[in-house]
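Hi there,

I know you've been waiting on this one. I reran it after we fixed the sequence typo, so this is the corrected version. Both the input and the resulting structure follow.
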Amino acid sequence: MEVGCFISLEELDISENMLSGKIPTSLGSCIKLEYLFMGRNLFQGNISPSLESLRGLQYLDFSENNLSGQIPKILEASVYLKFLNLSYNHFEGKVPTDRVFKNISAISVKGNNKICGGIPKFQRPNCKYKKPKLTVALKLIISIFSGLLGVALVLSLLFLYSLRKKRKENTLRDLSKKFLLELSFQSLLNATNGFSSTNLIDVGSFGSVYKGILDHGGQVNTVAIKVLNPYYHGASKNFIAKCEALQNTRHQNLVKVFTSCFGIDYQGHDFNALVYEFMRNGNLDEWLHPTSRSNETLEGPRSLSFHQRLNIAVDVVNALDYLHHNCYTTIVHCDLKPSNILLDDEMIGHVSDFGLAKLLFDATEDSFINHSSSIEVRGTVGYTPPGAQE
């Protein structure tokens, strides 16, 4: 049916007339309509969106029809609607909860068995949203796409791993070439009697230091060999940081590095080592706090005179001044402590252990690069400078 409407019409009652069809869209032209009664007819389909034009509507009765679909949001948005009867239709879905739908005495939705939600007084079940069923073809497409995506991800990870490993090997190789000579794992094994405990000098978080005798081209040297612990998190980065910090440093108060060594040991683990000049008088911490060792017999009590202490302090200051101001690349040590200050035969101090060092480029280049190792505790408590944790 079609319903003509006067613009000035305020009330329309066509209930109980056995009218059928859809809700006439022409009702939208009755913009002053306040009362609309269409109950007890045979209307079907959805409520026409044209009712949105009836902004002054106060009373609306659609009861006892064959209307279906969702309860439109336009009814919830109506500001002046005071009474709404949607009972005994075939509406479905969620009942709104705002404005007129909040007043149980102003609305009736009974007889609609497929609706859910709304305010608790409606006593309707909670809405359960059904997941759309996937067709066999769609499931097959998703399975194939997921499989291809998984394979691509695995291949990408393998490629990145191999690229990272190759880059690491190239970096270590380039760094190793900057030192005076290249040594193999076997040569260091022979120099330390198989890294025996009798040659062990010190054990730290990053690795162990061994005393070794190197015979290279007929020239015999006593050296200190620091072997990094492959199981320690960030060991490789620590090794690279040491190499980068030491490759271009030349100063009488810095520990002298003969070479680096990287490769694979007999168990298939990464082997990284640095070969230093051997310091017969150990480190400053052993002189400040002397303790007896099981593999070492002290000829006498170790003590430092005031003059020796002052000279060692000057040695350390000279080394730091060189690192901060006269090095090609400014270096900040970040872990300066007595155990990292080694003493030679003449009790001259040498700064060592650059595993946490930071390399700072010229400020005019507007750049900052941190080559410190990735470890959880950066430096030693009590000796870590401000900013080393950044």
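Quick highlight: Confidence is low (pLDDT under 50) at residues 175-181, 294-298, 362-377.

Best,
R. S.
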